[in-house]
From TrEMBL:
Gene3D superfamilies: YVTN repeat-like/Quinoprotein amine dehydrogenase (2.130.10.10)
Region ranges (Disordered): 366-400
Pfam families linked: WD40 (PF00400)
UniProt entry keywords in alphabetical sequence: Repeat, WD repeat
PROSITE patterns per UniProt: WD_REPEATS_1, WD_REPEATS_2, WD_REPEATS_REGION
Designated name of the protein: Uncharacterized protein
WD repeats: 93-115, 327-358
Top-rank lineage group of the source organism: Eukaryota
Amino acid sequence: MGDRQRLLLVSPDLQEEKAPRRTAYASVAEGYALSLSALPGYYAAAIAAPTSYVIDVLDSTTLVRVQTLPGHAIATSSLQTVNNLGGAGQKCLISSGKDGSIMTWDLRTNAHSIKLTNPGKKQALLSCDVTLDGMTVAGGTDLNTKTEEASIVYWDPRQPTTPLRSHDSTHSDDITTLSFAPTRDAETNCNVILSGSSDGLLCTSNADEDDEDEATINVGNWGCSISKAGWTHNGSDPDKATIWAGSDMETFSTWKGDLEQLLSIDLRTPVLHSGREWVTDYFITARSTSNAMLSVFTGSHQGDVALLSNTNFSARDAPWCIHKTWTHGHSGVVRDVLWDEIHQTLVTGGEDGKINVWPILPITDAPRDEDEAMDVDAAPPKHRKRESSPDAERRKRSKK
């Protein structure tokens, strides 16, 4: 690790929010808030409980629960809002489930309006995404132990029970994350999809190609189980990071568009101390904001959240910077965050069943000078002493 990576810089406008503005609770007992999404006027939270999987819909202004969607029969695995689906031209809520379906939800009827299935191969779906034009939906399956196949299945949403194609050999294990490129490929005019898997591979593929041997564009081997990945929206410079990924081992990486790795770091390493303290226990997610800044959200087992960034996501030795912390809102692991730039709020959901809304302010890119940076300890200091819920230890990073 380079000397500069041994520094955690402090943003000149470091903000510490110590209480959420509003709090809501999962509609079912012992429910975890696993993933969050936004619709005009609403927030949606995928809730997992021992005996039920629902989607709570909350008023974005008051955080009052306005309805509860029935969800998937077996575990909602992903939840997101898409701007267009099947030419409808309006935002809609879409989810994938371990019941082998992808559903589009109609808040007016409190039920799904479209249900995409693959009757020939009923496998759990762990991830999904939709092209910008809304005419192609992709779902990533778990590993079928009998056929030893994990597939990326593609649908035209207007033909929900007849997949367009299936790519069955891109990955050799669970496909945990899918993300279509924000624009079509400039040379081929095709839809490019990024996939990540428990097999440690990141792949980009031509989603419009029926022949899987011709579909694969690039492959990068990280060597660890990938949990999340996405695009940085900085594809104009081929030498800059255009892809990010997070692993189950709390490591974070960035990649060029051709999947040449740029950096890989254990996010638990940069530790802020000397009067202020931040200790990362796990990676939550990363988001590209409207100013093209990549924000990395990390959490502590106490239920706190921090926003970190790197001064240069394309340089292995570039130092990290802490911009904001949100504390004392959760009593356990935070599963997801939603950065709502329109309302200038951060929404967090956790294993304590809480959905919290916090204020956010514009981020200052420039960190303080290096002589004002905080050293990084090889061994993290002890966590600050603050009571957590009695079952917080049981809940740490447990998987639904």
